[in-house]
Design a protein that fits this description.
Pfam family, one: HTH_psq
Keywords: DNA-binding, Nucleus
Order of helices and strands: HHHHH
Subcellular location: Nucleus
CATH topology of one domain: Arc Repressor Mutant, subunit A
Radius of gyration: 23 Å
Largest sheet: none
Distance between the termini: 78 Å
GO molecular function: DNA binding
Shape: elongated
CATH superfamily of one domain: Homeodomain-like
InterPro entries: Homeodomain-like_sf, HTH_Psq
Length: about 100
């Protein structure tokens, strides 16, 4: 019986790592559903017309997200990421200043 060597050169290894990175980036989808889809799915689950699994599949919402929203574990609207540095008013003021300076 002949055994095959699993010797990989550094060049091949780095190439396969970059290919793997590209696959992960291509396969990752974030927020492919709308807030309206989320609201409709939640209403359907609460009304008993759809299960969480079926609603998640139909509307393209992660099951965990839908489960947490239906059970009230997380608020209906929630901003992802760190808190903003500027308030909405401050942000609008900066935007208006930039636009006025561009004229």
């Amino acid at each position: 019986m002949e055994t095959k060597s699993k010797h990989v050169t550094i060049e091949e290894e780095s190439q396969s790592e970059s290919e793997d990175d590209q696959e992960v980036k291509r396969g990752y989808k974030r927020f492919t559903y709308t807030e309206e889809d989320l609201a409709v799915a939640i209403r359907a689950v609460k009304a008993g017309t759809l299960s969480i699994n079926k609603a998640a599949k139909i509307y393209g919402i992660p099951k965990g997200t839908l489960f947490n929203k239906v059970r009230g574990k997380v608020p209906m609207t929630r901003k992802m990421g760190p808190p903003t540095v500027l308030s909405q008013t401050e942000e609008e003021n900066v935007m208006n200043w930039i636009l006025n300076m561009a004229i």
